[in-house]
Design a protein that fits this description.
Elements: E1 16-29, E2 33-34, E3 40-42, E4 45-58, E5 83-92, E6 100-108
Antiparallel strand pairs: 1-4, 2-3, 4-6, 5-6
């Protein structure tokens, strides 16, 4: 009886490559206040929110779960404090090339 052969295949690669990263800060603006002569007196921008998205290859980094507290699993330079919510996490697995993943979310620096 011939010996059984096991098909070769990569099950998992313990590396992650981030290919694309987008970061945008948004502020809520209040209506500008003008004096009786129509000159600008005061304006206000508050409630900062950071929107981010990351596309990568390899295995999805550990701890990145949609709806989870991504702030503990992912560190973004310049975005500190508050709460980070991951809105979308997508993974595509391939047999003959690297797996692909996408993550998007929001950071609310003023949230406790």
């Amino acid at each position: 009886m011939p010996a059984q052969t096991n098909p070769l295949g990569i099950k998992s690669i313990g590396l992650t490559l981030a290919q694309k990263f987008d970061l945008e800060k948004k502020l809520t603006e209040s209506a500008a206040l003008h004096d009786k002569d129509g000159k600008f007196v005061q304006g206000d921008a508050r409630d900062p929110v950071w929107d981010f998205s990351i596309d990568g290859k390899g295995d999805l980094p550990a701890g990145l779960i949609a709806g989870g507290n991504g702030g503990e699993a992912i560190a973004i330079s310049g975005v500190q404090g508050g709460k980070t919510i991951l809105e979308k996490v997508g993974v595509t697995e391939h047999h003959d090339t690297w797996n692909e993943w996408k993550v998007s979310g929001k950071n609310f620096p003023s949230a406790a």
